[in-house]
Amino acid sequence: MASIIFLDSPVGSGFSYARDPKGNDVGDYSSSLQVQTFLNKWFTDHPQYLSNPFYVGGESYAGMVIPLIAQYISEGIEKMQQPLINLKGYLVGNPKTEQKYDINFRISSAHGFGIISDQIYEAAMKSCKGDFVNPVNQLCAGLLCKIENLIAEIPDGHILYKKCVLAAPKPSGDASPRKFLLEESTHINAPPSRPDLDCFTYGYYLSYFWMNNNSTRIALGIKEGTIGEWIRCVKGLPYAFDMPSSIPYHLNLTTRGYRALVYSGDHDLIVPLLGTQAWIRSLNFSIVDDWRAWHLDGQAAGFTIAYTNNLTFATIKGGGHTAPEYQPEECFVMARRWLDNEPL
């Protein structure tokens, strides 16, 4: 179906590192330029892949930078910079785009999911005047606090799942790595808190031990001495969130002929699909294939709509944040059909 390059970005995440600590000080624009530089060097070293159709993809916050990275690549193509990458488009899942959409529609989505009542929703709409990002008065701020407390009762990544320990890295004395992976070469410094076995985040917990196993590092070709401990969610990187919106890049790329697939897990309350639908509508593209179900094994796997300028939006039924974590088969089939230029 595809050859995939998985890239740890920004620098400091995963197994990536900077020789100079100042190199970790990046933001949306600078890290996207680094990705472009990486791709240019990679294709220079592997020219046999240059003729392959190339797509950039990412999930969640990557929704901010993926269109920007694609923009930088497209500008390089226009300037005939070598190597000439065969960029065809991009895909983003549960994508952050702009606070006006991502946060504002969190309230209406919570209401639609039955997390907040009609009365609270109507009061918030009236007192906040539709702006839930910047509270305009004390009543609005109080209602937003009440709403956040109600949302905190459930996991906003997938509202139907148990609320569990996130399995972020924290010192914990109750976890023995040998209990889970019987490998003599496992060296653990500070394992994360252990979720219950039936928690979705248990996989995150196990990933900590797997990625810090010496045999895993050897298989991945990690340079010895570069990263002492792999951490799933690195806190405190000096990252500048300096791009207010990715919508102008979505507009620019799609109107210039690049294909785009935007998809959302329909049980995600972190980046709700209502907000994603709203910014897509703001592009004012005409509909070429109206809202309909798309299917897998005779069952609806989600719903989709196609617009002019090769923009497709799709929902993943039962998906959360992010959709492929919860519904891998559906997302695989969706991606395969889209990459093959087939209707979903």
Automatic annotation (TrEMBL):
<protein>
    <submittedName>
        <fullName>Uncharacterized protein</fullName>
    </submittedName>
</protein>
